[in-house]
Specification:
By secondary structure, the protein is mainly α. The chain contains 3 helices and no strands.
């Protein structure tokens, strides 16, 4: 039996299959762009602060104790 020998109307079967498929959901792009932009800005700001910060100096308590 061939596929076209069916008693069902092919256009109605195609319509039913199209109705059964869920619609494609598209996620918005702006939250990801905002998060990536914020991460890039904070990393550049952190790098700038680390470059401009004065060097760390340590002082041992034994060196500053009176003789």
């Amino acid at each position: 039996m061939a596929l076209r020998d069916s008693a069902m109307d092919a256009s109605e079967v195609a319509r039913a299959r199209a109705l059964l498929q869920p619609p494609a959901r598209r996620d918005p792009m702006w939250p990801a762009l905002v998060a990536a932009t914020a991460l890039a800005l904070t990393s550049v700001l952190f790098a700038t602060i680390m470059v401009l910060a004065p060097p760390v100096t340590t002082q041992h308590t034994a060196e500053s104790a009176p003789d």
